[in-house]
Amino acid sequence: MLDDNDKELAALMEALIGEVISKHDAISQPGKASRATGMLLVRASGSWKSILHIVAGCTSKREMQLCANDASAILRCMHDCALQAEYIRLGDSANGKTADDLADLYLEYEHVERYKRATTLVKQNSQWAKQLSNSRLRAPGEINNQTEFDRVKANYLDKNQRPRGQWYVGDGTTLARKVGREEEYFWFTSILHSSIHGGPFASRNGPPYPDAKNLLQVADALIRRLLVVVIKVDNLILSEQSTTMMNATVRDILNPN
């Protein structure tokens, strides 16, 4: 359900994303903030492309209504990526954290995630879990996981001295408040909750986006935020066409009209 104008704008956006990622990848010795925000941009760019495919593949309004639930779940992921990237770029002066400090917390949290995933998975009874448990790589892998986890875990302990569920202190609302996106966070977590978790309301009615254009507008606005972050962190200079695209007026996510 893309008209010719939609397709042209999507092609321009895809070229813009590609240019920024290419210039980012060309940096020979990226700093921690560059690495972290670049990872988030790449992750979100895949989400943007997925939404584009969903919208383009729908052939009727009813099909769009049903598939829009999946697109909404992907938008939630994009919004999370954007919040984290903006938080890293801005730093957290109230807690004495620079952009590189926050980026280091983001990057090193991979070891916590890997440790938690591995230790939980080998306790399961599925075929996959048994294959991993019996792998010849399990023993050296567990040693490495434990070593890296022990090295970083002190940076992520909650008040009960357990590793928290995310790399930053607090929850998603806390993070959104720090970057001035609290109302948006409420929208993506509460209003879209039924779409993301298969609720009966969204299963029957779809998400609160009336058409494909709204989905694309929100996706474009979110990917632009990540592009802005990476461009500023890396001090990138873009082509004239990409600069024009970045300077274009972007509709507010909650007030598109």
Structure overview:
The chain is mostly helical. The chain contains twelve helices and no strands. Helix 3 packs across helix 4, helix 3 runs parallel beside helix 11 and helix 7 runs antiparallel to helix 8. It is globular. The model has no long low-confidence stretch (mean pLDDT 90).
Give the arrangement of secondary structure elements.
Layout: H1 4-25, H2 32-57, H3 61-90, H4 99-121, H5 127-133, H6 138-152, H7 172-178, H8 182-191, H9 193-196, H10 200-205, H11 212-234, H12 240-247
What would a concise description of this structure say?
The protein is mainly α and 257 residues long. The chain contains 12 helices and no strands. The chain is globular.
Sheet-strand content, in percent, reads under 5%
Average pLDDT figure:
90
Q: What is the overall shape?
A: globular
Helix/sheet category: mainly alpha
C-alpha Rg (nearest Å): 20 Å
As a percent range, the share of helical residues equals over 70%
Major sheet size, sense and barrel closure: none
User: Helical region count?
Assistant: 12
Please write the string of helix (H) and strand (E) elements: HHHHHHHHHHHH
Cα end-to-end separation: 21 Å
As residue ranges, the low-confidence spans are none
The number of E-state strands comes to 0
